[in-house]
Amino acid sequence: MSEARKGVYRPDLGAGLFVLLLGLLGLWQAYVIPVSPLYAQVGPTAIPYVVAGGLLLIGAGLTAVALRGGWSAAMEDVVEAPPSNWRALAFLAAGLLANLALIDWLGFVIAATVQFTLVCAAFGSRRLLRDIVTGLAVTLGAYLFFSRVLSVNIGAGILEGLI
Amino acid sequence: MDSLTGLALGFSHALTLANLGWALLGCFLGTAIGVLPGLGPALTIALLLPITFSVSATGAFILFCGIFYGAMYGGSTTSILLNTPGESGSIITALEGAKMAKSGRAGPALATAAIGSFVAGTVGTLGISFLGPIVVELALKLGPAEYFSLMVLCFVTVSAVLGSSALRGLASLFFGLLLGLVGVDNQTGQPRLTFGVPELLDGVNVVLVAVALFAVGETLYLAWRWTNAEAVIRPVGRLMLSKEDWKRSIGPWLRGAGLGFPFGVLPAGGTEMPTMLSYYTEKKLVDPKHAHEFGTTGAIEGVAGPEAANNAAAAGVLVPMLTLGLPTSATAAIMLSAFQSYGIQPGPLLFQTQADLVWTLIASLFIANVMLVVLNLPLVGLWVRILKIPTPQLYAGILVFATIGTYGISNSVIDLVLLYGIGIVAMFMRRFDFPTAPVVIGMILGPMAEQALRQALTISQGDWSTFVTRPVSLCILLLAVAALAGPRIFGAWAARRGLKAQSGGID
Predict the structure, then answer these.
(1) For B185, phi and psi rounded to 5 degrees?
(2) Where are the transmembrane segments (chain A) (predicted)?
(3) Phi, psi (deg, nearest 5) at residue B209
(4) Cys staple from B79: which of A123, B93, B347, B439, with CB 3.0 to 4.6 Å?
């Protein structure tokens, strides 16, 4: 808490309200748990209510702190942080979304290679071809390791069917 | 079984070719991920959890422990050469280590860190071997009520005592507890917090949450604040300790190990506090003729002590994990879920029902320590090359593994959506200084605490006073209250005496 800051600090207020919202979600979900016909000293709803109540209290506490100036405005990490890099975030988000859209359709290797290339671009890499080749090698390696060594089922895609 | 018989048994199992191979693989992998910024042991073990379906418990745990110890060794390399702590326990090492590297003494800094890690790891593992059975004896006398109280104490210490704010630590913990509640209640079979989504009936997967917090959230945050600044990797130079360096290191190694181990054992977990204490101790005790090196050219004592404390604390964390089934770090929590995946109930009975496994594990820790000091000193050149992987490709690769680890759980896109969703939450947690480890601990320990609570109340026939009328349980709960309220009361007292610093404190 910085002594210098007075008044509402909006970013922290958002964080506090988010925790409050989580508490409300918990409360709602605890409320809709069907009451068990089985005998139990502590039913299935007790702990969910406690956890939701805890989140509400903590959220209220954080909100109160945020209203009195917040906690993060004076933090070294925040003060010295470089400005938000929306270009990098956008490329990264595009990579994650591309993966979501493609993975069931084209399989893990292709979807993750697209994601790899976009993530490289997000962090400023400009060598598209090299990134695609590296990405293909990394995803194929990961696929072989998980499916052959760890025996995890990664599903079948176009490239996976060939090996 | 007493410790020496146990160790003899353990070594007889651990020295087979297969188990030595698992230890070597774990050490190698652990050092590599420790060196790489952005990857930690909790994430790596989480991604490797599927191995529990195809490999024996002994092999898997030797691998995991190798990774756990190896990451501690590797973390110091990054701190010293790059001035970027690879994991939280290495933050203090970076202080003096990076300064030594800057003034051309990277070699001795790396050597004292590796040998100090070896000394402390060995001291810590000896501690596990001899303290473990004693804790088990005590723990066997505890009933569900005491267990529940112990878990409450654990919750309080990992969330409210460590870290910069009790409120934010508790928020993380309760977020974890909430995630742990999702799924079918194991006592009554009722679905809870599933929002009517059938995929959530099995609960939220621990791997998914760990990957979201430690890989996706971290990458998102990095992108958010991305600038194309090139990091400077300092040259290693000669990896030798002079006679003088040895003389200056031995004391800090032993003091660091002595400081670190008890901190790890206490259900407080965390390596930040013992490393910091060790640093200030060495700064106080240093020979006046070297005192000026602290904070200027880098003092070897300031690397040797904290690095030893870091490793001894990491070893200490295994004591509550193996003897009580209480995880006090994110990595320990993930390992606990590996036990559960084998159908092994961690807790005091582990030393009896799984004596082979436990002692083989402890023996492997000794072996891993020897392997690590050998891997780290002559092979330092290899680790430096790993450091040179450019950031774009490194984080793109991390996300590939995050995706496959999560998609492999059930081949469901819903899991990936959840992964990215929790990843976004984790990015904001980083921005607003909420710790992430309590989320994982709450998620794993929460359901266990609920079970203990229900058992205790079934035994007491619904009488809630059982937690305060049983003396041991009451003592533990009082400790928890003291841990929660103590710093606040002290803060208020200090403020009244006008000692309170301008910033910091508990909000």
Answers:
(1) -65, 125
(2) 12-34, 46-67, 88-116, 128-146
(3) -65, -45
(4) B93
Q: How far is B481 from chain A (nearest CA, A)?
A: 16
Across the range A54-82, mean pLDDT stands at 89
Give the structural domain span for B164.
3-496
Q: Which chain A residues have a beta carbon less than 8 Å from that of B50?
A: 146, 150-152
Cβ–Cβ contacts within 10 Å for residue B468, how many? 13
Task: Provide the mean pLDDT of chain A.
Answer: 88
**Number of domains making up chain B:** 1
Write out pLDDT tens, residues B350-365. 888 889 999 999 999 9
- Using alpha carbons, select from B313, B315, B314, B285 the residue that is nearest to residue B301: B285
| Direct distance between the N- and C-terminal alpha carbons of chain A, in angstroms, rounded to an integer | 58
Handedness of CA B377, B382, B388, B391 (dihedral sign): negative
- CB-nearest to A29 from B48, B193, B411 is B193
What's residue B234's pLDDT? 85
3-state secondary structure A26-85: HHHHHHCCCCCCCCCCCCCCHHHHHHHHHHHHHHHHHHHHHHCCCCCCCCHHHHCCCCCC
Helix A86-106, helix A108-122: angle, nearest 10: 170
- Tell me whether residue B502 is in a domain: no
Would you say A26 and A51 are in contact if contact means Cβ atoms under 8 Å apart? yes
Task: Give me the pLDDT at residue A94, please.
Answer: 96
The partner residues of A11 in beta bridges, in order of sequence, read: none
- Average of pLDDT values for B368-377? 92
Cα separation, B66 vs B68, in Å, equals: 5
Asked if residue B507 is part of any domain, the answer here is no
Measured between alpha carbons, how far is B197 from B183 in angstroms, rounded to an integer? 10
Among chain B residues, CA nearest to A154: B408
Q: What is the pLDDT of residue A76?
A: 79
pLDDT confidence of B502, banded at 50, 70, 90? Answer: very low
**Pairwise CA distance, residues B134 & B126, whole Å:** 13
The pTM of this model reads 0.90
Does residue B486 surpass a pLDDT of 80? no
Q: Which of B379, B311, B260 is nearest to B118 (CA)?
A: B311
Q: Averaging pLDDT over each range in B206-215, B269-278, B478-487, which range is the top one?
A: B206-215
Name every chain A residue with its beta carbon within 8 A of the beta carbon of B185: 33, 36, 44
Residues of B in contact with A104 (CB under 8 A): 413
Whether B245 maps to a domain, the answer reads yes
Tokens standing for B62? 């030797």
Q: A137 CA to chain B: closest CA distance, Å?
A: 10
| DSSP secondary structure letter of residue B436 | S
Residue B505 lies in a domain: no
Pull the structure tokens for residue B502.
């301008």
Q: Given a cut of 90, is residue B38 above it in pLDDT? A: no
CB contacts, 8 Å: B462 with chain A: 41
Average per-residue pLDDT in chain B?
88
- This complex has an ipTM of 0.92
Alpha-carbon gap, residue A3 to B152, rounded angstroms: 33
Dist. CA B141–CA B465, nearest whole Å? 20
CB atoms within 10 A of CB A60: 14
- Rounded mean pLDDT of B178-183? 94
